[in-house]
Write a structure and sequence with these properties.
Shape: globular
Number of domains: 2
Strand content: under 5%
Order of helices and strands: HHHHHHHHHHHEEHHH
Number of helices: 14
Helix content: over 70%
Number of strands: 2
Distance between the termini: 89 Å
């Protein structure tokens, strides 16, 4: 049954590739292919994972069909015509430079904050700096104003890096600086989701800008992706003591990181009460209640569940887990709606409209990480995406209009008798 699911998802990816006009980043192509690849890892990993139920595989295949169906419906919508290619106004270009400068100037304070946290909880010498940083982040999540400020700074740095890369013509060094700082901020927190999300977004933007897959860029991004993953696994999850001894565990952890969520989702099918699903909006609601003085426990992270006979455990359960309160059919339907909405954004993004390109670049990580968790429920992050876009592209135009109106009024008053 597992091999049949892999073949079905692979065939669905090929069909979507043809329907999408041979576009490699057409959302259902990647959605189907990434689940096929991760199930393939489960298949070749042998006894690293528990065997999966046929019912779970049916849910995964059905979800891929629902996502594809939503995308097909979006493709039926009449094409949306964006304005012709526009030259970036100098005022917007200056705003990008200012934002990059602000991020770079804030970096030393960011590093100092991380250093203070790690120094305050120095444990055994065997514990690496990144592991201690990660432990500190987990303790502060949702409880510290400083964590909120610097965590938001890290997210804004990611958005600024994407915009700087999108507008990199004539400013390649500015883009590289913004990318380097964003990756460094994510790594110093001991987490890989931020840097990996940035790499995925950069690939999306490059593909949209060039209208093709540049294999050299793809290879470079893949190597950076692998290096970031290996670095975090080695220093955060494996202690960072001996690279030679940890080479095999790093490879195993890659398989666990890629496919563990799928196997964990299967464990929930067997024991639904092991990790009850949490709606994406629920933690934000509870945080507000806690800020108002209520004594509530906020589920910042999910419970762990064993996924293999060797004691391996994870606390991620694929994109479907967030919607399991609606039942399996409801979760599959929600994934179909996501496919519809994301493809509508995709259709506008491929016409090179800046806002839609940026939204697609940050949302596409939800497709890549769908076997891991649900990345589409981070609404506050989308708010910052739109806000930063407005500062770069809309605010300078509004300021120019205000300046023109003031100048016109002054001129009119000067000419008045």
């Amino acid at each position: 049954m597992l091999l049949f699911a892999i073949l079905t998802l692979s065939l669905l990816a090929i069909v979507n590739y043809r329907i999408g006009g041979r576009a490699l980043l057409y959302p259902p192509v990647v959605f189907s292919a990434i689940f096929a690849f991760d199930l393939f890892l489960v298949w070749v990993a042998g006894d690293l994972f528990y065997a999966m139920l046929p019912q779970t595989l049916v849910v995964l295949v059905s979800g891929a069909f629902a996502f594809s169906l939503g995308s097909w419906l979006a493709m039926l919508q009449p094409g949306w015509q964006a304005p012709g290619t526009q030259v970036l106004p100098k005022s917007s270009d200056r705003m990008i430079t200012i934002l990059v400068a602000v991020v770079v100037a804030s970096f030393p304070a960011y590093v100092y904050w991380i250093y203070q946290l790690v120094s305050a909880r120095r444990g055994p010498a065997a514990l690496s700096f990144l592991l201690l940083a990660r432990m500190s982040m987990m303790d502060l999540m949702g409880k510290s104003l400083a964590f909120t400020v610097f965590g938001t700074l890290s997210e804004i740095a990611l958005i600024v890096a994407l915009i700087a890369f999108y507008e990199r013509e004539g400013h390649s060094k500015r883009a590289l600086l913004a990318i380097a700082v964003s990756i460094a901020m994510g790594l110093l927190m001991g987490q890989k989701s931020g840097p990996l999300s940035l790499i995925v977004g950069l690939l999306c933007i490059d593909w949209i800008k060039t209208k093709r897959v540049r294999w050299k860029v793809l290879v470079v991004m893949a190597l950076i992706f692998a290096a970031l993953t290996a670095t975090i696994e080695f220093y955060v999850h494996l202690g960072g003591d001996s690279l030679e001894e940890k080479a095999v565990p790093i490879v195993q952890n890659f398989a666990i990181y890629a496919s563990g969520g799928i196997v964990a989702f299967d464990r929930l099918a067997r024991q639904p009460n092991v990790a009850p699903p949490v709606n994406d909006f629920y933690p934000y609601y509870l945080r507000i209640v806690r800020k108002l003085g209520g004594h509530v426990e906020v589920p910042e992270v999910a419970d762990f569940v064993s996924i293999g006979p060797h004691g391996t455990a994870v606390n991620v359960y694929t994109i479907y887990w967030s919607f399991l309160e609606l039942g399996y059919l409801g979760a599959i339907a929600c994934v179909g709606v996501i496919g519809l909405l994301l493809t509508l954004i995709y259709k506008r993004a491929i016409r090179n409209s800046s806002l839609w390109v940026l939204l697609f670049a940050v949302l596409f990580r939800g497709v890549v990480f769908a076997p891991f968790n649900n990345q589409f429920g981070l609404w506050y992050f989308l708010f910052f995406v739109v806000l930063v876009w407005w500062f770069v592209y809309a605010l300078p135009l509004h300021l120019a209009r205000i300046k023109f109106l003031i100048a016109s009024r002054v001129e009119a008053l000067a000419k008045a008798p």
